[in-house]
Amino acid sequence: MTTTALPAKLAEIQEDFLELEQKDRLLLLLEFADELPELPSRYRDHPDLLERVVECQSPVFIFVDVDDQDAVHLHATAPRESPTTRGFASILAQGLDGLSVAEVLDVPDDYPQTIGLTQAVSPLRIRGMSAMLARTKRRLRERP
Amino acid sequence: MPVDLDPDAKFAAYAHPERLVSTAWLREHQHDAGLIVLESDEDVLLYESGHIPGAVKIDWHTELNDQVQRDFVDSAAFAAVLGSKGITRDSTVVIYGDKNNWWAAYALWVFSLYGHPDVRLLDGGRDKWIAEGGALTREATDVAAEEYPIVPRNDAPIRAFKEDVLAHFGHPLIDVRSPEEYTGERTTMPAYPEEGALRGGHIPSAASVPWARAAAADATFKTREELEAIYRGEAGLRENDAVIAYCRIGERSSHTWFVLTHLLGFEDVRNYDGSWTEWGNAVRVPIVTGPAAGEAPEPR
């Protein structure tokens, strides 16, 4: 378990998962998968702006956006046939939304391992979510 | 009492037509007593996102692989998993899944290690069922648990270990990975995560036949004639050959194992599940890089 204080939304998501039985954790992940919003049209029309998360087993693309108020917005797209990946992307998109760049960079890298999914989903598959978080942070660090 | 076989004409040409059922057959027999339909996917949530009504999920990673030792679950764990899905030793089990039945074939191969008598694949799998407008539901399937007996796992006839491969040189090997993995350009499938192999390439003398070549565009198996052209024609397999197939962790090659064993009738086919994640990291085993198969070393 990590000792760094988590941003409120990420902490809430973590608690929601941890208080469920293993089997129900998968159903909550499915809810997240269902909630992943469609990409904003400006990215739909510009696939070149998206970054492929090659560590994931299915085609998932992310785009990290920082608005005028220094608030981060993560957009992601993954096919319907890859609900696990969609669920991971949706957790991060919701959990990081509106945080400042510094807050996102402070999110512990092991957050994906701390939400109680390693047993239900398997550690190997969780790697895809860790990669998404790492790529999001790298995008922010390398931002012009 | 086994459930009726599928008399489909395409299947009749295969060596073991009893190992396949069509989507039409499943629509008709879905509710037969003694039949358990299992879904086995790569994505651990795909079943929950919608499955064939009445189907039960089996997960290759969390239920068929031992979580500590790199091996399949032992006899007691296998019996517990199957019992929990309402399967008895007499059940007819039909497995279907995503991606040309890739993970369904893997589950079927593990069932075969335990000698489950009647286990079949749904030809075309999940994709064909959906393409034909087949119903999907998110409703949880009610399963009445059964007693599945604790039976020994018999690896030898259909599973090869590294030492078996070293002793096999001089007989055909089939590498079912992508061309990029075969040449050594990559150690994982294109677009898949790096799972760690120190060397890229293939086992000397292995023929390259990517596994999905056995599947038609609609995810069904190609016809006997088409498969003969690939495996006997191009890869040069001959009657009575002993064959070992491998990939990266043994899942894609269990699909090829199914094709060679049940569709083409080869009687001595083993799946080397250590595959490239073992061979590509092992000390003092020979490998070949580039597109040529290379010479078979002396068996040891």
TrEMBL record, chain A:
Residues covered by the Fe-S metabolism associated domain: 15-138
Superkingdom, taxonomy of origin: Bacteria
Family: Belongs to the SufE family.
PANTHER family for the chain: SUFE-LIKE PROTEIN 2, CHLOROPLASTIC, SULFUR ACCEPTOR PROTEIN CSDE
UniProt-recorded name of the protein: SufE family protein
Lineage, uppermost ranks: Bacteria, Bacillati, Actinomycetota, Actinomycetes, Micrococcales
Automatic annotation (TrEMBL), chain B:
Segments forming domain Rhodanese: 31-138, 167-288
Keywords, comma-separated and alphabetical: Repeat, Transferase
Reactions listed under catalytic activity: thiosulfate + hydrogen cyanide = thiocyanate + sulfite + 2 H(+)
PROSITE patterns named in the record: RHODANESE_1, RHODANESE_2, RHODANESE_3
Transmembrane annotation, as ranges: none
Family annotation (InterPro entries): Rhodanese-like_dom (IPR001763), Rhodanese-like_dom_sf (IPR036873), Thiosulfate_sulfurtransferase (IPR051126), Thiosulphate_STrfase_CS (IPR001307)
UniProt xrefs under Pfam families: Rhodanese
PANTHER family linked: THIOSULFATE SULFURTRANSFERASE
Protein name per UniProt: Sulfurtransferase
Organism: Cryobacterium breve
